[in-house]
Amino acid sequence: MKMNVMFIMNYSPPYSGNFMSSIWTLEKKIKEEKGSCIYVYPESAENLGWVNEMRNNGAIIYFKNGVFWHDIKLYEKAIKKNNIDIIYLHFWSLTDALSIRLLQKKHHNLKFGIHHHNEYVLSKSHVRERIKHWILDADFHIGCGSYVASEVKEAGYRNVHHIDNCIDFRRLDQWEEIDLSKLNILSEGGVLLLTFTSYSFSAKGIDISLAAIQKAREKGAAIELLIVIADCKDEMNKQIEDFFEDIVPGWVHIIDARSDVASLYHSADAYLNSSRTEGLCYSSIEAVYCGCQVIQSDIPQNRLDIPGTIIFEKENVEQLTEKLIEYANHREHNSEAQRKYVTEKYDLGEWALRCYSVLANV
Prior knowledge:
Blueprint: E1 4-9, H1 17-32, E2 36-42, H2 49-56, E3 61-64, H3 68-82, E4 86-90, H4 94-106, E5 111-116, H5 126-135, E6 140-143, H6 146-154, E7 160-162, E8 191-197, H7 206-218, E9 223-229, H8 233-243, E10 252-256, H9 261-267, E11 270-273, H10 282-289, E12 293-297, E13 310-312, H11 317-330, H12 335-345, H13 348-360
Parallel strand pairs: 1-2, 1-4, 2-3, 4-5, 5-6, 6-7, 8-9, 8-11, 9-10, 11-12, 12-13
Helix pairs in contact: 1-13, 3-4, 7-11
């Protein structure tokens, strides 16, 4: 089916990442069927290298500034100029969705869908929830995992689909050895744990990770933590400093995100995910593909299906402490079995085909 799709996404990290690999794979399928795609990013993405590369390759890109009336005029201009049939929201805001709902009153054949990358949170006020429900009453919804999709469906939305996030494994095959000594990491040996954060210190459970490692070290375990921050760096640094009452110990290392994420996985012994909530965690899948063990909380959004990972009860610092000590002493895991499992289950091409099917049948 031929379709012209406009992707609207509040996405502006310094690297394109697995998310954009997924979108580009879907775009390829749309173009194979004689359709087209255009993109809307926030103004903060305008000068990013990967965005410039998209433009150099002929992509049509618009930039929104977050001001409601400016953005709705921008969307209408893009719809008319590019004969848009479907608007597909990722990392959206309520004002983004409201803009599209209002435009649908004018463009009666315009369809729009919402991709839910995080859990659906009900409003505390019944009135506010009803207003939000009207705004988000899209023609289709896609949850990035079964748990997220079930929450959206239970909230009363129509045409809800569950499509697990998948991985562009090709981007993980290129990596280089990181000289940890230059970063003053593991100068005395021991275990290096890796974690990522971007949008929420609390949601990502960074405080849980710090507390458990601190306790494990007090019991003699030589463990260090490498925290990779993709966004909101000043805020994250402040919260980490506040956790330690301003003096961050030497076993905590904070660096900026980098595009060759595989190099980080290969440099660490294990990936630690202490999240209180997730959408669907890419990092656990990427980690085991790179031969890195995964230690994760037992929330249903995490990849608990991956064989041989270390699982602990959400927010249970004592249990995580014991799991970390045990891992530091043994460091055993079947990396080949884990890699085989994720390679077969989380294929990017299958994700694109399923998303395309939803768009084609809306």
